[in-house]
Amino acid sequence: MNYLWEAMLRAKEQNISADSLRFSMAGRFSGYMELSNPCLNEQDLRGIHPVEVNLYYRFYHIFKDLCHPEQREFPHLTAGLVNMAVHLLAENDVLSGMTRKEYYKELLYQDIKEGLFGPEILEGIRLFDRDGRETILSGLLRQYETGSSLDIFKDMVEDLIEESIVYRSNDNFHEILVYVGQKEGEKIRGKMELLLRLFVELPYHVEIYYERHFGIMGVDCTMELDAMTLC
What highest taxon heads this organism's lineage (predicted)? Predict the structure, then answer.
């Protein structure tokens, strides 16, 4: 981490409330880095209190008087003002780096967290890590822009569920077969249920096969005895 916006994003990844972060002017710092971490390649913000910042790196014109070495009056007031100002600058840093798409995704995720999509969606999306949530939100925006599509569902499953393949039945246009090469469990079922709720239209019926692939005529690796599921 080098910049303020990196610290804010890292805190979000580690489920650390931004309000719990406390920033201060670094006592000793490098002229080439904005954050003065205990370790040069520090990635974990937990246990770092306060987060020391070289405020002269980008914001000298703001802090040159407030953080002047000769300014020794009202130290607690100064520390509080510095912390509040850096929080505002850090939040602006994050927003200024967001594209319109990222902004829409943030609003969409806020709606989900507030329960506007229902408790099942909120519970399901919590099963995914930050990268997984970003993929789901991108899929939802794509769906709003282009309409529902099996291609979107297929992309979501194959991007988010390891060892998965999505098939469309040759016998029934509205039947979708999904192979998941993992042992069936509560977490993987919850993830699949979320993707079904968000990305599959009503006319379609989805069958999910866990761990063992169903047999496909002409594909020898799926036709091994005691290693396939009959469907």
Answer: Bacteria
Per-residue confidence (pLDDT) for residue 219, from 0 to 100: 44
Distance from chain centroid for Cα 89: 22
pLDDT digits (tens, 9 = 90+) for 168-203: 887 888 899 898 988 999 999 999 999 999 999 888
More confident residue, 221 or 22: 22
Cα distances (angstroms) measured from residue 148 to each of 109, 125, 172, 180: 19, 19, 19, 22
Dig out the tokens for 150 from the structure: 């099996």
